[in-house]
Amino acid sequence: MNKIKNTFIPGIMTSLLIILGIIGWAQPAQAQGNPDEAQKMKMLQEMAPYKGYLKAHMNIPPQELLGGPLEVEITQKSGGVFVILPSKRKLDPYVFGTPQVPRALAGTPGINGLPPGVRGINNGQYTEMEKPSPFGDKNIVMGNGKLDIKAVDATATDAGKTNDEIKFMASWQDKQGNTYEVRCCGMLAAHGVEYPTFGGVVTNTVMHGSSRIGTALMPTMYTYFAFWGMGEIRKNGDVLDKPRLVHGMLTEYVRKKDYELAFDDEVTPTRKHFHLMVPPMRPEMKEQKFVHEDVKTGFKLPNGMELPFWHVMFENLEIDADRR
Q1: pLDDT of amino acid 18
Q2: Fewest Cβ atoms closer than 10 Å to its Cβ: which of 193, 250, 320, 323?
Q3: Are 135 and 279 in contact (CB under 8 A)?
Q4: Which burial class, exposed, middle or buried, applies to 66 when counting CB atoms under 10 A from its CB (0-12, 13-18, 19+)?
Q5: Per-residue b/e over 273-308, b at no fewer than 16 CB within 10 Å?
Q6: Can you give the residue range of the structural domain that contains 33?
Q7: 171-205 confidence digits (pLDDT tens)
Q8: DSSP letter at 134?
Q9: Counting Cβ atoms within 10 Å, is residue 67 exposed (0-12), middle (13-18) or buried (19+)?
Q10: Residue 13 vs residue 182, higher pLDDT
Q11: Which of 171, 173, 28, 223 lies closest to 113, judged by CA?
Q12: At 129, which helix (H) or strand (E)?
């Protein structure tokens, strides 16, 4: 295998804004105790743009990838990692539109779309998401980052089951010497919730941003490799949380100076990095929706609260890929 080293209609829209206006990132948990909010959340989730597509792929057999299975190996043997902390994401007009013509509305807030009620506005333009999320600029660097991925993309589309494969291990250390680890996948996501997962492993596609495959809070990005599955969270060898939804992807570079998260027109196509995401969301496959649930990471923030997700970036990569 070749080795690569990577140093409308105004009346309808007005009504929609009134309906959607007060839903936020953490609202799924809060909505359970409020019938009105729960109904609005259900409406948002039912409006997720890939609902029909996913329904058509619910119980089909695995469809073979054109050209045959692709094997992928990605490693990081040493070096630091960037750990993303909660902060408010600036809103890209290419992805979210304007208050007059908003885009990316529907789906579970934060993990898919973003309702207008949590979008800041200034001078007729959206400014930032008014609640902290895992998709902002704030970050810290941790050491001894290691990554080991062996995967096979064999299944082309979502299906009832999959022939895709993955073995994933990632770890890093804080300044006190604690080791944090994510392992995956006890079960691949053969079929997605709100957006497709292509059998659990996908190669050579476009994700996030305007694609609506994954959160719109990340930029639209070419994705060389990605996976979704259920894994576990560890600290110093002890399992803290399982099963948890784990998502990883190798993409073109979407960070700027001071590690700010780029808008679509600021992406760097000539560089690559790997994103690990364990979101504060739990998929409910039978009901085809996401429910808010913080991750037990074991890492304390300066305010004493536990970091409720892992979003970790690896950049000292070795990448191999070839047809089986």
Answers
A1: 33
A2: 323
A3: no
A4: exposed
A5: bbbbbbbbbbbeeeebbbebbbbbbbbeeeeeeebb
A6: 2-323
A7: 999 999 999 999 999 899 999 999 999 999 999 99
A8: S
A9: exposed
A10: 182
A11: 28
A12: strand 125-129
Query: What 3-state class would DSSP assign to 113?
Result: coil
Q: Which two tokens stand for residue 163?
A: 């022939």
Q: Are 291 and 285 within 8 A, CB to CB? A: no
Mind giving me the DSSP string for 142-211? EEEEEEEEEEEE-B-S--SS---EEEEEEEEE-TT--EEEEEEEEEE-SS-SSS--GGGEEEEEEESGGG
Tokens representing residue 313 in the block: 């970036």
Could you read off the pLDDT of 73-105 as tens digits, one per residue? 999 999 999 999 999 999 999 999 999 999 999
* Strand pairing category for 221-235 and 268-278: unpaired
Instruction: DSSP letter for 68, please.
Output: S
pTM, two decimals, is 0.89
Considering only CA atoms, give the Rg of the chain.
19
Number of structural domains the chain divides into = 1
Closest CA to 265 of 274, 273, 257, 254: 254
Instruction: Output the CA torsion 284→285→289→291 (10° steps).
Output: 10
Amino acid code (one letter) for 227? F
